Amino acid sequence: MKLIEKAQIMDETAMNRALSRIAHEIIEKNKGVSNVVLIGIQRRGVPLAHRLADRIYDFEGKRVPVGILDITLYRDDLSTLSEQPVVNGTNVPFEITGKVVVMVDDVLYTGRTARAAMDALIDMGRPMAIQFAVLIDRGHRELPIRADFVGKNVPTSKNEVVNVHVIEIDKVNKVIITEQSP
Length: 182
Description:
The chain is of the alpha/beta class and about 180 residues long. The chain has one domain: Rossmann fold (3-Layer(aba) Sandwich). The protein is about 30% helix and about 30% strand. It contains 5 helices and 8 strands. A 5-stranded parallel β-sheet has the order 3-2-4-5-6, with helices on both faces. It has a 3-stranded antiparallel β-sheet with strand order 1-8-7. Helix 1 (about 10-30) packs across helix 2 (about 45-60). The longest helix has 18 residues, at about 10-30. The mean pLDDT is about 95.
């Protein structure tokens, strides 16, 4: 089976605009960022978290700590992924207890990644609150999870895949929908 590109739903400009809006919403919801930390979920949530931190700095003049969270070992489908799952590493070099933790990911789909991320965070401490920012919400939830901050809602069918490409990993900034060819 081959994946074919059906549509590009965001280009670099649209991604930047969405991230700027999310950064403003994080600031507004939390009445500033003095108690806020960002944690990017491996892989593409990490560069998105760093971009949000840069925008927050541009708007507020304050650096927000950014951590990296690998949820591989917290997944409920770990045994079906592979015999040797790839662990990219977690790096949260600051205390999360008592903080507002904003988890950042590229796509919200079933909610299982967000649930695994919350499990991993709770093992690190007791945040005052956990909020969730995603670039794309594509629907089809299997768990009662929603994002607090969404760049774009994109209705999809279950046979479509939303692919977020970031320059740090993919050498281009864009979001596309692909589908398996028959």
